[in-house]
Amino acid sequence: MIILPPPVLGDLDLHLFGEGKHWRIYRKMGAHCMSINAIEGVYFCVWAPSAKRVSVVGSFNNWNGLRHLMRGLGNSGVWEIFIPEVQAGDAYKYEILTQKDQCLIKTDPYAMSMELRPSSNSIVSTSGYLWKDKHWLRARKQFQWQHEPINIYEVHLGSWQRESDGRFLNYKVLAHKLVEYLKWMAYTHIELLPIMEHPLDESWGYQVSGYYAPTSRFGTPDDFRYFVDYCHQNNIGVFLDWVPAHFPKDIFALGRFDGTALYEHADPRQGEHQDWGTYIFNYNRNEVRNFLIANALYWIDEFHIDGLRVDAVASMLYLNYSRKEGQWIPNEFGGHENLEAIEFLKTLNIEVHSQHPGVVMMAEESTSWPMVSKPTSMGGIGFSMKWNMGWMNDTLKYFQYDPIYRQFHHNELTFSQTYAYSENFVLPLSHDEVVHLKHALINKMPGDDWQKMANLRLLFGYQQLTPGKKLLFMGAEFAQWNEWSEKKALDWYLCEHPSHRGIMRLVRDLNHLYRQEKALHQYDFEQRGFRWIDCNDHSQSILSFIRQTENAQLVCVFNFTPVKRASYRIGLPEPGLYKELLNSDSTYYGGSNIGCFGQVHSVNIPCMGCQDSVEIVIPPLAFIVLKKMAE
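Above: the chain's sequence. Below: its structure in token form.
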């Protein structure tokens, strides 16, 4: 029996959705268990404006498209139906008859749960999860992320660890294993490669077919809620990778959803991403912008996510991104800026920040587009932070040089300080740098095995001590030799070897130092938190700088060659006794134990623009951190 009560989606809902401003549209669209006239069932609602007919098909009607025909709501393009006796756990899809009488079987764009691939069925989902993270959420509202430590461990859940037989771990199991490790390693946040449902493991989650569904690879939506909740109860923040730039062409998903280019542009010069073989969202369409912005809010509302890293922002900003002449259409002013995408991103950031204080939005943006992380009120795009891809590229390029040639590339280390405070930067050493044919970080380093390990320790020190928030992809923290593969777990057995264990110890101690010393995080985005001691010693490939607050100064010295620098005089900001807080050449980390023997005392000899100085021993391929002791 089919019941046709008054429409559940009211006039106000339809009006807001048509304007692209129904920020909780996911509470109406999709499949929702409810009671109408004391009858239990499921309400289905979908947007398909060009369809001749839309039906719900599923396990409850033998997938027969003539059993449960939906009704259209005026000219809105929205279709709905209430079906009694359907319940949570039932599988379903939409059968859509196009204007050309083609019959399409489509996954629900707003499905909150989906079956495990290769199945693409949507699942009626409901949640009874009781959250226990109220203290975290209350504190998050006051989170001063600009001045607090943010040290992110980037993780692909399917390959961090697995069961002994190769099966994926459940979200709940992952929660306990990861949190224990994150706390021990002193990370503040975890960032997950996309966990929205996706059909192809090899896409790493970046080709999404179910924007509202946590992937069933690791369990149910409530299992994922448990994951986030458990992280919060242990003071670990959770960020998600989010992909609003493009979506795959799979026939069962968003592509040509009602037989027309609905979510994407019809013209391939605007609607297809040539590099990735995907469709590009049509940001000029109200309902499409609504779908995406509501989706961002959904993950924050329903799963208490603390921030989103927005993927491939550069591809959204430029109409000619990765295109030759004749392959793109200029905007109305003749330029290459994607004006609709820019407005979409601004609205996205305004809504997230206004509705959820303390939640951060990060842009993976690889060009010099200005003011990406500045407020929209100042003319910016409104992100909280931006990945510093320039720093990453220059730094990794420098470290791959044989040390004998580094003196000729000194500026590749110092150049980033010329723009370091133009944006709120995250310094990323991410998954993109360790995938197939790119080599693991340890294998990017020159020299023999000892020099590779020393260089990697030096790289991690340079990242942690340089201004900016931090991100490191899993496996690098213990110097995994193999490139990362989504097909298997990390090579954890390496941690049994002293040299790899030494790298892990160094990363752990750096993480603790970064959290404990305000000088290393309080003014990450401000010039006053940093000043050079000497950035010009290219002939010896030595850098020295100060990280500082009003009450503390840390002296950071780096030697990028395998030559020990004995009796090296360095200027100091103040006279006094300086303690060696960290020395990457310690045997505890796998080094040769050369250094300052724990402490040094200044002398009144001017050097490097400072009134006082000290002679120190700088270990080979190493860094040291000194801090003035209280009188």
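Residues 167 and 212 are 24 Å apart (CA to CA).
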